[in-house]
C-alpha cells in the first residue's frame, strides 16, 4: 500500500531519478578532462538547461551539467535569444526559448 501511494504521488519516480543522478555523479571521474564545448553545443545545452529548469527536472539537469561540462552558471537569456535570432515579447518571456522555437516552426508553412 505504501509503495502504491508513493508511486501514485510520483515520489518513487523522483527518488529513482535522484538515485540515478547521485550514482552517475559518484561514478563520474571529475579528473577527466571534458572536451571543449563548441558554440553550437553550448547554445543547445543552454536551451535544454532552460527547459529542464522550467519543468523542474532538477536531477536530469544535474546529470546534463556534469556530463556535458556546461558551465554551472546559466548563459544570459537575452544573449541566448540574440544568438538564436529569437525575438521575445511579454508573452514569451516567461517560457523557455525552446517553446518559442517550437511555436515558430509549427506555424511556419
UniProtKB/TrEMBL annotation:
A Pfam family annotated for this UniProt entry: FOP_dimer
Superkingdom in the source lineage: Eukaryota
Matching InterPro entries: FOP_dimerisation-dom_N, LisH
Alphabetical UniProt keywords: Cell projection, Cilium biogenesis/degradation, Cytoplasm, Cytoskeleton
Gene Ontology, cellular component aspect: centriolar satellite; centrosome; ciliary basal body; motile cilium
GO annotation, biological process: cilium assembly; microtubule anchoring
The UniProt record lists the keyword Cytoplasm: yes
Compartments (UniProt record): Cytoplasm, Cytoskeleton, Cilium basal body; Cytoplasm, Cytoskeleton, Microtubule organizing center, Centrosome, Centriolar satellite; Cytoplasmic granule
Domain FGFR1 oncogene partner (FOP) N-terminal dimerisation: 40-104
Membership in a protein family: Belongs to the CEP43 family.
Function: Involved in the biogenesis of cilia. Required for the recruitment of PLK1 to centrosomes and S phase progression.
Protein name: Centrosomal protein 20
Annotated organism of origin: Nematostella vectensis
